[in-house]
Amino acid sequence: MNISEPKLKLKRFVFNPFMENTYVIWDTSSMEAIIVDPGNSIPEEDDTLLSFIAAERLRIKYLVNTHGHLDHILGNAIILANFSVEHYIPKNDLFLLQNADNQCAVFGIEFRQYPLKVKFLDDLDELQFGSLTSKLIYTPGHTPGEFCLYFKEQNLLISGDVLFLESIGRTDLKGGNSEQLLNSIREKLLTLPPETIVLPGHGEDTTIDNELKNNPF
After folding, report:
1. How far is 87 from 5, CA to CA, in rounded Å?
2. For residue 5, what are the contacts with CB-CB under 8 A and spacing of at least 6?
3. How far apart are CA 60 and CA 62, in angstroms?
4. pLDDT at 5
5. Which class for 185: exposed (0-12), middle (13-18), buried (19 or more C-beta within 10 A)?
6. By the 8 A CB rule, do 90 and 64 touch?
7. Model-level pTM?
8. What pLDDT is recorded for position 3?
9. C-beta separation of 58 from 91 below 8 A
10. Which residues contact 10 (CB under 8 A, 6 or more apart)?
11. Does 38 score more than 60 pLDDT?
């Protein structure tokens, strides 16, 4: 999937056994970029992502994990080994990243170790790279700390595992809270402009308008 806007370009990759959406977003004027939820888990997926970045000549500024579940962090080690980036995570999901090896062991997936030198999304109101600005929206419920990224000027929301096409994130994993998740969606996401494009952590994109009309949850 490709999304283009005068200043913003975006590429989506689908990686790992969980079919997770990894997003590369960049500013076309400076070529500064962020990688959101790198799910690449095997050498072939690593090569796909790294080759794309090299071909586009992107300057990776931030690595962002919207939350700490294993399918959204499997590529962290490769990104950190290849680029000098600031690594941002939700503070309340730090325990998930600290226990990533155990998460992976449950599913028989190899965990690639890396230094956990992180900064917290909680300490920022927004992320800036090039001429682009993403507002950080705290949306707990799927995990205790999850954040969504909202590009207001481009009517674009990266929703992690909070809101999907006519569905919502699961809350039966450690730290999940169904009431909290529904409040996050109703109060913070469904109040965005209806034309906002929603890019979730799994599956196809949707819009706020579609979810207001058709999401059974």
Report:
1. 26
2. 154, 156
3. 6
4. 62
5. buried
6. no
7. 0.95
8. 61
9. no
10. 1, 2, 3, 4, 23, 24, 25, 26, 156, 199
11. yes
Question: Cβ(160)–Cβ(64) under 8 Å?
Answer: no
Q: Report CA 90 to chain centroid distance, whole Å.
A: 11
The token duo for 36 is 């959101």
- 5/198 Cα distance (integer angstroms): 15
* Partners of residue 13 on adjacent β-strands: 22
101-139 residue pLDDT tens: 999 999 999 899 999 999 999 999 999 999 999 999 999
Question: What's the CA gap between 139 and 162, in Å, rounded?
Answer: 7
Contact 209, 159 (CB under 8 A): no
What is the mean pLDDT of the segment spanning 185-205? 98
What is the chain's percent helix, strand, coil content, to nearest 5? Answer: 30, 30, 40
Rounded to 5 degrees, φ, ψ at 66 are: -65, -30
The CA dihedral of 204, 210, 35, 177, to the nearest 10 degrees, is -100
Residue labelled with tokens 């409040």: 183
